[in-house]
Specification:
The protein has 237 residues and is an alpha+beta fold. 30% of the residues lie in helices and 29% in strands. The strands form 2 sheets. Strands 1-2-3-5-4 form a 5-stranded mixed beta sheet. Strands 7-6-8-9 form a 4-stranded antiparallel beta sheet, sandwiched between helices.
């Protein structure tokens, strides 16, 4: 079979509409909101603060912890069960690993930086949206960073390589989803997961799609941060 037309009418290399904001949660050290299509993620950064329990402290640098959660009625599919799950713990772990390469936590010995990611509405691409929001939040918090992390999924439905899968494509019986997080400037990959069967040549096509998409993601993230600083500047005037 052939996948001639996407369910939502997009081109095969077209992303869903995107929006982003920084500084959306007042009591957090930094925060970000990222929306792509009908998937939206809020990220809040708290810290650096002293790490408890103490045996988890690193005397050489700070520790990054991520907590990912989907709200019970957020999903386009089945209702999400409240509380931590194996999936949410796994995504929390890989999100932290995706963000760590751009962070400099050397000045925060024995401290922890916590990122809380909440998704009130989802339509696939949740971990990628969470990473994009968290990258904005870390920059907003003033944590030293050498780059922003941009994340988007690519994959395959039937015989077509596509960018930014929605829920219908992600759940397609012949669909393959590959979430990829990429450091914008270097184009180095900090996260890549694979769900399904796909050839190495097709994976290479997906990576090239994501490289081009990362520039668009970066512009959205950058504009969110610039907008935040413009607002702060106006208040201080």
């Amino acid at each position: 079979m052939t996948y001639d037309k996407r369910f939502d009418g997009r081109a095969f290399d077209e992303m869903r509409p995107m929006e982003a904001k920084a500084g959306v949660i007042k009591r957090a050290a930094g925060s970000g909101w990222f929306k792509i299509g009908n998937t939206e993620a809020y990220a809040a950064v708290y810290g650096p603060r002293e790490m408890f329990p103490r045996f988890q402290q690193n005397p050489e640098k700070g520790v990054l912890r991520c907590f990912y959660s989907m709200m019970p009625f957020s999903s386009a599919g089945d209702r999400v069960r409240p509380g931590p799950s194996r999936r949410s713990k796994e995504i929390s772990l890989v999100t932290a690993k995706a963000l760590l390469p751009v962070l400099d936590l050397s000045e925060y010995a024995n401290s922890v930086v916590d990122i809380y990611i909440e998704l009130p509405q989802t339509d696939a691409g949740t971990r990628c949206a969470g990473i994009c929001a968290a990258s904005i939040a870390l920059a907003d918090a003033g944590i030293p960073m050498k780059d922003l992390v941009c994340a988007i999924s690519a994959g395959k439905v039937e015989d077509k390589i596509i960018l930014d899968l929605n829920y219908e494509e992600d759940s397609h019986e012949k669909g393959v989803d590959i979430p990829i997080a990429m450091l914008h400037n270097s184009k180095k990959i900090s996260l890549m997961q694979l769900d399904g069967e796909i050839s190495s040549e097709e994976v290479a096509q997906c990576i090239e799609m994501v490289k081009k998409a990362s520039d668009k993601l970066f512009e959205v993230q950058k504009e969110a941060l610039k907008g935040r600083f413009r607002v702060a500047g106006d208040k201080n005037a």
